[in-house]
Amino acid sequence: MTRQSTEARDIDREREREREREREREREREREREREKERERERRERERERERGEEKRKRERERGERERRERGR
Question: CA distances (Å), 60 to each of 24, 25, 67, in order?
Fold first, then answer.
């Protein structure tokens, strides 16, 4: 094998390794985007749960106040 063909083969191999590294970096970025979406979804769910709890406590407080007013009559 000539030196030029060996160098050309080495260059091709290095380019292929670099393409594979870039594909892996892209896969990792995609995994990170998915993890971020999941974290955001969980954050929104916790926020909804918190709001539902606040609404429930507010209704219970209002009902308690109403019952006290009615008993006070």
Answer: 54, 52, 10
Three-state secondary structure along the chain? Answer: CCHHHHHHHHHHHHHHHHHHHHHHHHHHHHHHHHHHHHHHHHHHHHHHHHHHHHHHHHHHHHHHHHHHHHHHC
Q: What is the pLDDT of residues 45-68, one digit of tens each?
A: 999 999 999 999 999 999 999 999
Q: Which among 30, 33, 72, 46 has a CA at the least distance from the CA of 22? A: 30
Entry pTM = 0.60
Alpha carbons 38 and 32: distance in angstroms, whole number:
10
